[in-house]
Amino acid sequence: MKLLFKQRFFSWLDSYNVYSLPDNADADSYELSDSDVRFVVEGQLALGHCFLISDSSGRELGRLEKRLFTLLPEYDIYIGGELYGTVEREFSLFHKSFNLDVRGWSISGDFLDWDYSIVDSSGNTVATIGKELFRLTDTYVLDIPDERDALCALMIAIAVDVERE
Fold first, then answer.
1. Phi-psi region of 116 (alpha: psi -120 to 50; beta: other; left: phi over 0)
2. What's the rounded Cα separation, in Å, for the pair 100 and 93?
3. φ and ψ at residue 164, rounded to 5 degrees
């Protein structure tokens, strides 16, 4: 499954539409339509970053919340109202790195070039994330082999995007 996650141009809070793309589609040339919307991400007014993720019909699927009063930024992932995992930024002098406490997954790659991967404990790729450069708004392409991992992988990508800025 391929997702295109695109920040809205006029948005006071971070808000995104996430589109399903055909696996063979090129993100640069594919014509997006409202029928392609898979997820809607709405930033919420809160003390820390908070995002609600819903499907295209408005049904809430998950929530991403930044923990308050932590030395380095940490985000809790909630799916179906239950704590599912955590994304935390690790201390590093020269590059940004992140630690995942989600299903035994890990994250690695070049965060300066906006290209990274999420892999499971067996070394299988859960998702690859790459930023589309030269766009007016933040735009990412997520390649996710197993559709069941899409929501969680999306929330990890959002947490990394917020902390990269």
1. beta
2. 19
3. -75, -25
